[in-house]
Write a structure and sequence with these properties.
Rossmann fold; 4-stranded antiparallel sheet
Length: 253
């Protein structure tokens, strides 16, 4: 087991819920520095809730969360937030801002750089995610779904984060677009040394780019490990998920 100093995220005894509904009760999870962790689970198991809780958008009822060695609290930690980036589903771009203006939002919040440098950084991030230079001046409504995800990724990378959170990054993409996005994540992970926390349903992504997989079930972490651990599991949901028709197709590809 990795020492705590090698952990990017450490969660112990997490309890969350909405009203009387309990989502997690006693969840423990470690995310190692530099790994790509895929988070899966059935509908309603709280995959996106977990991501949003780690980044401070949901408040837990109990338990502790440490990110990059710092314990999260009810008080916002702006300096820590600058060390992670988040790509929400469909990019979650501001519709009234152009792509470069969207990318500059976190830069303006966390820095006092002059506009010339903000423009240069935005152009660099656009190129980094594989978009054409003219995408900088387009609005989200002028982009395809895949382009919006890449623009959202460029914004998530604006502050050169250490951790990248991805919420269903390939959802809604055709197989070719999804494979290209997986390849992009793998390239960025290698070149930037990122830790990647990825919520996904995409079995191809799990097989292709994830070092380990965490399965949420029964309000806890049901299993965590590399793909061979998932394939050998006797847990009913895990077995059905990874050995069902789509799982077999992903394994064969």
């Amino acid at each position: 087991m990795a020492a705590d100093r090698e952990l990017a995220i450490r969660i112990r005894g997490l309890r969350t819920g909405f009203g009387k509904q309990v989502i997690f009760d006693g969840l423990d999870l470690d995310v190692h520095r530099g790994e790509i962790l895929g988070v899966v689970g059935g509908s309603g198991t709280g995959k996106s809730v977990l991501l949003r809780t780690i980044v401070g958008l949901n408040r837990p009822r109990a338990g502790t969360i440490e990110v990059l060695g710092q314990a999260l609290s009810s008080r916002r930690n702006v300096a820590l937030e600058a060390r992670w980036g988040v790509l929400f589903q469909d990019g979650a771009l501001f519709s009234s801002l152009t792509v470069d203006e969207n990318i500059q939002v976190p830069l303006k919040e966390h820095s006092t750089l002059p506009q010339r440098m903000l423009d240069e950084i935005a152009s660099l991030k656009v190129a980094m995610v594989g978009l054409a230079p003219d995408a900088c001046h387009k609005y989200p409504s002028q982009l395809s779904g895949g382009m919006r995800k890449r623009a959202g990724l460029a914004r998530a990378l604006a502050l050169d984060p250490e951790i990248l959170f991805l919420d269903e990054p390939t959802a809604g993409l055709d197989p070719i677009g999804a494979a290209a996005f997986d390849k992009l994540i793998l390239q960025l992970h290698g070149s930037l040394g990122l830790t990647v926390f990825m919520v996904t349903h995409d079995l191809d992504s799990l097989h292709t780019i994830c070092d380990r997989i965490a399965v949420l079930a029964d309000q806890k972490l049901a299993a965590v490990g590399p793909m061979d651990v998932m394939l050998a599991s006797e847990h009913p949901w895990i077995r059905e998920y990874f050995h069902g028709p789509r799982g077999r197709a992903a394994l064969a590809s």
